[in-house]
Amino acid sequence: MSDLTFYTNPMSRGRIARWMLEEVGVPYRTEILAFSTDMKSHAYKAINPMGKVPAIKHGDTIVTECAAICAYLADAFPGANLAPPTKQRGLYYRWLFFTAGPLEMAGCFKALGVEVPPDKYRMVGCGAYADVMNTLELAVSENRFVAGDQFTAADVYVASHIGWGMQVGTVEKRPHFVEYLSHISERPAFKRALQLDEEASKELQPTG
């Protein structure tokens, strides 16, 4: 077993990290945590003081936040070829952090029914929801993958947000989003991750 531990709950953003781990293809140990108990324990807060998942521990290195986990794993395991060469990472970083910032914020506002007044757009990182959707569409329509012709960790992160967002209504079902997600979700690692999380979800459900 690798010295890599994955802390998650299958009904969380941990699904993003699970997919990334399956793309990397190295052995890892999974710890499934309950939301209101395990995640708030002193033991887990030593891993992530936020008391949230996912997190990974690789040797002595702890990484939280999905975008950071994706970027870290791509660099820690270069043999998986999930990051472009350093000098070609402009789009890679751009779309990773666009998704972690404006897209995540706009999606949360949408889910909560929060409407930012136009005269307050400058105060929030996402600005107008329509601008976020148009920019996201640019990310997935200019190239086959968001960083160019190569599938990368950025695709794991962007596609996860698009898939979840279209499912719950925080991302519009535009044709470019549907097409991008369709070809990304055919990846064997995505299917393995999905199966593992579905199995873990069933194990958490009460019986009887």
Furnish the topology, listing elements before pairings.
Blueprint: E1 4-8, H1 14-24, E2 29-32, H2 42-45, E3 55-58, E4 61-64, H3 66-76, H4 90-112, H5 129-141, H6 153-168, H7 175-184, H8 188-204
Parallel strand pairs: 1-2
Antiparallel strand pairs: 1-3, 3-4
Helix pairs in contact: 1-3, 1-6, 1-8, 3-6, 4-5, 4-6, 6-7
Span of the ends, CA to CA: 34 Å
CATH architecture of the largest domain: Up-down Bundle
Mind summarizing the main beta sheet?
A: 4 strands, mixed
Would you state the CATH class of the largest domain? Answer: Mainly Alpha
Helix segment count?
8
Q: Please indicate the percent range of residues in DSSP E strands (runs of 2 or more).
A: 5-15%
Q: Would you tell me the overall average pLDDT?
A: 96
* Helix proportion: 40-55%
Structural class based on helices, strands and sheet pairing: alpha+beta
The secondary-structure element order is: EHEHEEHHHHHH
* Spatial strand order of the main sheet: 2-1-3-4
Tally of distinct domains: 2
The unreliable regions are none
Count of beta strands: 4
| Global morphology | globular
Radius of gyration: 17 Å
At the fold tier of CATH, the topology name of the largest domain is: Glutathione S-transferase Yfyf (Class Pi), Chain A, domain 2
Structure characterization notes:
The protein is of the alpha+beta class and 208 residues long. The chain has two domains: 4-81 and 190-204, Glutaredoxin (3-Layer(aba) Sandwich), CATH 3.40.30.10; 86-186, Glutathione S-transferase Yfyf (Class Pi), Chain A, domain 2. The protein contains eight helices and four strands; from the N terminus they run E-H-E-H-E-E-H-H-H-H-H-H. The chain has helices spanning 14-24, 42-45, 66-76, 90-112, 129-141, 153-168, 175-184, 188-204, and strands spanning 4-8, 29-32, 55-58, 61-64. Strands 2-1-3-4 form a four-stranded mixed beta sheet, covered by helices on one side. Helix 1 packs across helix 8, helix 4 runs antiparallel to helix 5 (129-141) and helix 6 crosses helix 7. It is globular, with a radius of gyration of 17 Å. The mean pLDDT is 96.
